[in-house]
Amino acid sequence: MGSKCVAVIEDESDLLHMICDLLVISGYQVIAISHPDLMEVAIADTSPDLFLMNVMLRGRTGIEVAQQLRREGYTHTPIIAMSASPTMLALARRSGMFQDEIDKPFDVDVVLHTIEHYLPLSGGPSSRGGC
Predict the structure, then answer these.
(1) Residue pair 27/126 in contact by the 8 Å Cβ criterion
(2) Sheet with 100-103: strands ordered across
(3) Percent of the chain beyond pLDDT 70?
(4) Residue 99, SS3 per DSSP
């Protein structure tokens, strides 16, 4: 059985790379998306098992991106919101688009625990980084 695929949508480059590295080392396949406008192309040939996204993105909010994902058929795919803003997390929660949320700055154990809650791994680390 293949690894679970997580699409990470984060416009802060260093944070995007850190999260992706953490997930790959932990055994997940990852799609790194640095801007919401790149999402459609990035996931065109895959079907992520979970989306982890910043709520405050350049150009669009994570809420708008989550609404787009739901319209495009990702109705049962978990979407987890991340933000350093309690106000943005509250808006994300009220939107009904997200299954969970992670406060920034975050502890890596919290990120992994939250993702593992929705995507438990069955086996060891993956040798592939992409989905």
Answers:
(1) yes
(2) 29-33, 5-9, 50-54, 79-83, 100-103
(3) 92
(4) coil
> For residues 92 and 63, is the Cβ–Cβ distance under 8 A?
yes
Residue 74: CATH number of its domain: 3.40.50.2300
Residues 6+ apart with CB under 8 A from 80: 50, 51, 52, 53, 98, 99, 100, 101, 102, 114, 115, 118
Please check whether residue 126 lies inside any domain of the structure: no
Report the pLDDT averaged over residues 24-42: 96
In a domain, residue 125? The reply is no
Residue 41: domain span: 5-118
Total domains in the chain come to 1
